[in-house]
Amino acid sequence: MKKLLFLSTLLFVFTLGAAAQDLEDIQTPQTTAAVADEAVQQGNWLVGANIGNIGFNFKSDNFGIDINPRAGYFISDNAAVGAEVQLGLSIYDGGEEFRYGFTPFARYYFPEGAAPTHRWFGEALAGFAGSSLEDSEGDAVFSSVLGLRAGYAHFVSENIAVEGILGFTRTSADISVGNGSSGLNFGLGFQIYLPGRGNR
């Protein structure tokens, strides 16, 4: 009986050790990369999108989504200029609304508080927006858009960053700009940083 107990204990210890070794060999997904300085160099490109306001209201049968694709170019280290397109759709009982806009932007990544895996940035944008929803009291179908934003870019791989952006946008068009209506808004998105020819 003692031999059987000893052999069972020995077998359990070896099995546990083998399982622990297998767990050590498992690689977790990459969640951070120390490439922030290389990504924001002069000559690089910026491509990505903010996605937000995805939702469905069961009581009113209202579905909405906004997506803001963008592209930019680094004119110097830490400074990029580009343009963003606002696209939005709301489908509700009795109709639908399509929203659109085009806003050039200038973005600056602050070297202060920078780390190899993330950067803080500020952004200004100015453009126009409109909507297919006409005759909305107090709103214009076509209007200028002005905004200021602040954000945080966390690099999850060599060329990809996840971003959070908080901003203030002013417009009188029937459009949600930057994942929120006119006023204070918050957006989440991702950016792909492509090296320029001289930075490869």
The helix content is: 10-25%
Return residue spans where pLDDT drops below 50 for at least 5 consecutive residues. Answer: 177-181
**Estimated radius of gyration:** 25 Å
Number of strands: 8
**N-to-C order of helices and strands:** HHEEEEEEEE
How would a textbook summarize the main sheet?
Answer: 8 strands, antiparallel, barrel
Can you tell me the overall shape?
globular
- Give the end-to-end Cα distance, rounded to a whole number of Å: 69 Å
Q: What is the strand content?
A: over 45%
Structural category: mainly beta
Averaged pLDDT, please? 78
- Widest sheet, order of strands: 1-2-3-4-5-6-7-8
Total of DSSP H or I helical runs spanning 4+ residues? 2
Quick gist of this model?
This is Outer membrane protein beta-barrel domain-containing protein. The protein is mainly β and 200 residues long.
Describe what you observe in this structure.
The protein has 2 helices and 8 strands; from the N terminus they run H-H-E-E-E-E-E-E-E-E. The chain is mostly beta strands. It has an 8-stranded antiparallel β-barrel. The termini are far apart. About 2% of the residues have low confidence.
List the defining traits of the structure above.
Outer membrane protein beta-barrel domain-containing protein, 57% strand, 8 strands, mainly beta, 2 helices, signal, 200 residues, eight-stranded antiparallel barrel, single chain
Give the arrangement of secondary structure elements:
Elements: H1 2-25, H2 36-39, E1 45-57, E2 62-76, E3 79-92, E4 95-115, E5 118-131, E6 142-155, E7 160-171, E8 183-194
